[in-house]
TrEMBL record, chain A:
GO terms for molecular function: 2 iron, 2 sulfur cluster binding; 4 iron, 4 sulfur cluster binding; electron transfer activity; metal ion binding; oxidoreductase activity. Keywords: 2Fe-2S, 4Fe-4S, Iron, Iron-sulfur, Metal-binding, Oxidoreductase. Belongs to the succinate dehydrogenase/fumarate reductase iron-sulfur protein family. Transmembrane segments: none annotated. It holds the Pfam family Fer2_3. Residues 5-92 form the 2Fe-2S ferredoxin-type domain. It comes from Trujillonella endophytica. GO terms for biological process: respiratory electron transport chain; tricarboxylic acid cycle. The lineage of its organism: Bacteria, Bacillati, Actinomycetota, Actinomycetes, Geodermatophilales. The keyword Iron applies. This is Succinate dehydrogenase subunit B.
UniProtKB/TrEMBL annotation, chain B:
This is Succinate dehydrogenase subunit A. Transmembrane segments: none annotated. Residues 9-415 form the FAD-dependent oxidoreductase 2 FAD-binding domain. Residues 471-586 form the Fumarate reductase/succinate dehydrogenase flavoprotein-like C-terminal domain. InterPro entries: FAD-dep_OxRdtase_2_FAD-bd (IPR003953), FAD/NAD-bd_sf (IPR036188), Fum_R/Succ_DH_flav-like_C_sf (IPR037099), Fum_Rdtase/Succ_DH_flav-like_C (IPR015939), SdhA/FrdA/AprA (IPR030664), Succ_DH/fumarate_Rdtase_cat_sf (IPR027477). The keyword Transmembrane helix does not apply. It comes from Trujillonella endophytica. Residues 288-307 are annotated as: Disordered. The active site is at residue 308. Keywords: FAD, Flavoprotein, Oxidoreductase.
Amino acid sequence: MSYDATFRVWRGDAAGGDLQTFTVEVNEGEVVLDVIHRLQATQVGDLAVRWNCKAGKCGSCSAEINGRPRLMCMTRMSTFGEDETVTVTPMRTFPVVRDLVTDVSYNYEKAAQIPAFTPRPREADGSHRMQQVDVERSQEFRKCIECFLCQDTCHVIRDHEENKAVFAGPRFLIRLAELDMHPLDVVDRKHEAQDEFGLGYCNITKCCSEVCPEGIHLTDNGIIPLKERVVDRRYDPLTWLGSKIRRRRPD
Amino acid sequence: MELERHEYDVIVVGAGGAGLRAAIAAHESGARTAVVCKSLLGKAHTVMAEGGIAAAMANAYPEDNWRVHFRDTMRGGKMLNHWRMAQLHAQEAPDRVRELEDWGALFDRTPDGLISQRDFGGHRYARLAHVGDRTGLELIRTLQQRTVALGIDVYMECTVTRLLTGENGVTGAFGYWRESGRFVAWSAPSVVLATGGIGKSYKVTSNSWEYTGDGHSLALQAGATLVNMEFVQFHPTGMVWPPSVRGILVTESVRGDGGILKNSAGNRFMFDYIPDFFRKETAETEAEADRWYDDKKNNRRPPELLPRDEVARAINSEVKAGRGTPHGGVYLDIASRRSAEYIRKRLPSMYHQFKELAEVDITAEAMEVGPTCHYVMGGVEVDPDTEAARVPGLFAAGEVAGGMHGSNRLGGNSLSDLLVFGRRAGLAAAEHARSRPGPAPLPDDDLADAARAALAPFEREGGENPYAVQHDLQQTMHDLVGIIRTAPEMEQALERIAALRERVGNLSVEGHRQYNPGWHLALDLPHMLLVSECIARAALERQESRGGHTRDDFPATNDEWSRTNLICSRASDGTVALSRQPLPTMPAELAEVFEEVPA
Ligand code: SF4
Ligand code: SF4
Ligand code: FES
């Protein structure tokens, strides 16, 4: 059941690096992260890689496998032929720290800039009442495991370092959409979405939705509706007011 | 020596649910607070929690209240829990859940718009607030976003290797940045340990690489005590196939939502394993068990929902008796019992996990599952109200603290534990810092010594490979201090641990200090070894079976032991010392709970 695979893994740091070739054992049922771990344990003890859950739940093990942004722990070796060379490189959109580990602080900075969730008051009995259908829209975006693969993919910032200052990336556009659709939140962030987080830079190529390991429909369910509401808000304040009021449950 | 220095009132070590909740509480009560964590913010092991947060909110069953939750928790822990912790936990959990909503959490709803609550093993009523089967992610993201909104400092990918102490207790902590390998020292009068558990000492575990017992070991070395270390929870349902995913958790919600366990002969074997202790509240026939899902008033619970220790032992016995699946587990079947649509809706991440990792469609076929090391009930001995350890200025909350869960934890009680005691620890840590005149100086010698110890693996040439040593430790604990234990095996384990200690003293690593996983593991290994020794010693000493501690040579519970805790401390020669301590006595008005609520 085992075979020897050829792996090319990028090794290096901020100063530079290159692809190194390894021959490494692969067993039945393994994923790319298992093979990287075997390299660590047997050939290159200092090979740098992030991971935590090994079950696609924490979003730590993001990398590019044969050029595709993917989670290493959810990429089964059986998707490759036994004689196929598997190439693993760090996410290109973020600066390399070492080997497969990148500096993702851009994402944490954007997250911190988003105006915080602010709830309406609780009801008289201390509860918040919301209907399942109303929470489900935001829940879709709260499935996000912050793997940042969508950020890595988005052409607005991939190879365009200069756009990072003005564009928050798909992950944080859906965070804005999530808050906008949140039944309890009372803050309007549409203005910031456009002017500070760069909603207008997105031209709806949908590449972000394609790579999302959680299957979140970033563009269809998040970014496009947000764009529509921003337009409403800008040109027709009454429409916006109406939609905001309709979203409240009738008491 | 090159060293980055910082000063705070409260340092929280760990950024899972307990750590973040502690940091929020400390910050909100005015303390200058920082969180130090080994991974990126938002990646902590709490994200792996699937089922939900246990809280007697009575949204699903008006009969539910804190006294019933308290009773369930104590019975689940076979009465070894610290009664005061179990009481505070049951009383405060509902408020801790509600406040998450004020910070943005979106739980699944009941038809009238309240937080929906689901069934779980050992809980009399449906009580777990949940979001599909990704409740832990919701909890961590909510606390993360709150932490960021409050502007609390977070030192990400930074490992604490030592607690610094002076005559009056804690003075700070010493650690290194994983990215650069550079050293950091924090001066602080209060440190909250929220480092989680120890599962990485075992071969088959649901725990991530972070679970190396750092907090347990740091506390012990600083002079604090550990309680109940012999109690390790093996979750009954981990994946068993393929080998590379062995141990990954399969949530208890599968059983709560209707899944049943079957052996290779197709028998629903849990009916053969109902212990007397739970007989009155467990269904006797399959028909009654099946009726329970819709009519809880007139039927008793299916035996699949017995506490985890009971189910794990039963699976272990079935496999040993030759009635296991081809890959050495048993079948967990929900496919034949619920519609595909229902399964995908209630258990989306389980569906995804099996589809992606095992090529199994859980809406069409049964899963293969077996026990996996999941949780340590034992931990730092703390004061129930303040989570203060025996060293002044040291606090512990969440999995790293002991006492709350007794000999076995109920599912769902972990996330509520993190919130209730995380908050209490943060408040008490801030209060303690206020009582101190100011930062104590950190002696240069102590800092230099900590740095020397951390760099030692680079100095040695041709020593032991840390990955090989870790592997041997995991094999030892798996084989000799696992689910079923005997004295000769544990004695052998202690001998092997002694031999491993020699090898850990002789580790060497290649490369340099920048993001070097081999070096990081070399620094985690002494912690893993120390907690493994505590577990093995305590397990050898406790000559009875109870909860997460099963002795083949002492299969029954024992009255004397029902009143006794085992305490680990550090002897003057650096070894682990063990002592017996009477259980705290429950006040009469709480003892009544066990009579007033029908079993
Ligand atoms: S749809 Fe927008 S956000 Fe997504 S990848 Fe394309 S440009 Fe980027
Ligand atoms: S939206 Fe999807 S791809 Fe983007 S960070 Fe979240 S989980 Fe990853
Ligand atoms: S390790 Fe958690 S997503 Fe891969």
